[in-house]
Amino acid sequence: MTRATDKLAHRISQWRPGLTPFALPFLALLGFGLWTYRPNHTPLGWILTVMWSVPAVGVLVGLQGALLIRRRIRRSHEMTPAAEVSDDLLIVLVPTIGRHDTYPALERSVQSYVAHLPVYFSQLRVDVLTEEGCEAADRIDTLGAADPRIRIVTVPKAYRPPNGTRFKARANHYAHELRIAEGEARDEVWVLHMDDDTGVGPDTAETLAQFINRQRRSSPDEAKHMAQGILTYPRELAVNRFTWLADAVRPADDIARFRALTGTGTPIAGVHGELLLLRASVEATIGWDFGPKAIVEDAQLALTFCRRYPGRSDWFNGRCYGASPAGVRDFVKQRERWSWGLVALCFNRSIPLRHRWFLALCVSTWIIGPLQHIAMVLAFAWLSGSLNTSPVAQSVVLLWALNFGYVIWMYWEGLRLNGLVSAGGRRRWWEPIAVVVLIPVFSVLEGIGGFRGFLKFVRGEENKFVVIAKPA
């Protein structure tokens, strides 16, 4: 590795979530709330008591995840150097819509796989999964010819899975059937699912190797079959600094809810499609054919996994490197698609309620975001003739301080992670100030996307898998 990549790997290995960025806002908000509290038994007071308190369940789960990371990093066996994985085959699966505006990001990502992963994986193949007759087919074929480890897998236009699943899930299911036909659905074959705009680094290869080698040392009853890492956004990959700051919330979610749930064996909050590692033999028993309405196939896979393989997922402290949406419109469209698919998943009765309830709770707090916004609340209070926005009981102030302190922590710590993987290895002086000041704006955009997705589900509109442009 070069000196620069050595420094990056060292910085990442030393990182752990901070607690002070949560504790200070929490104490300040708690003190202010107790000082300004006035009993409020109006309808608005009851509505706010419920609406601003419900997120506390997810907040407590998220804080548990951050504490688990701090404890794991202190354990010596997690810090041992990774050894080469010589007995397992690693297949990197990269679905792409194959448009010209997504190709530069695809090329960057694929080049990162063949540059960094072979250091630990002597058996490596990168399967670029695309559609027959796609726009950038010639350029993708040229990319495949550049390295023998890259294979272009073309999904025929006539291909239809038995349950009629569409979009990315359809392509994933085709690749899953191909692996079965080629005899690769074995325990010693691992599939690393990546998006076409998300690359890897030397730390990714090292932590993947650590995880896979640990499974070889584990007993068959304890070995894990699924693992998820952290999605981060280097500054230099961002074409829009505003959306880059807004996406600080995403790596924070990985070190919070996903660490707490996926990392303890039960991914009931779902997973994301980047840096998702699955044992091929296990993926072969689930597949991706979830039906024509599935547009959040990764989350549905996770809930199905919960039912069939309880306790067999994990989390690893490795990163992948993606790019934020190129503009605000794409940012909202992306959130709208996620919300649309997740709401449908929450109402999917084929999945047991015990595996859906937490996701439904999180999605509910998301889609009512516009109604929860402080500006909207103050407007309702003014129209009602009283600016008293206290809850019905003073003890509820504790929950509110917990929730709002956690939101500040997520953006602060997520930005810290994105700064860590960027050139220079740190945030610029003004970025933490900007991300905190802009939280009310970010929450509006998140809420608009979530609410629009919910409306499309309620209206019964035909679901669409919207693929935004991918920055290079």
From TrEMBL:
One Pfam family in the UniProt entry: Glyco_trans_2_3
Keyword annotations from UniProtKB, A to Z: Membrane, Transmembrane, Transmembrane helix
Stretches assigned to the Glycosyltransferase 2-like domain: 190-404
Domain of life: Bacteria
Xref: InterPro entries: B_mannosylTrfase_Bre-3/Egh (IPR027389), Glyco_trans_2-like (IPR001173), Nucleotide-diphossugar_trans (IPR029044)
Membrane-crossing segments per the record: 21-38, 44-69, 357-383, 395-412, 433-455
Protein name: Glycosyltransferase 2-like domain-containing protein
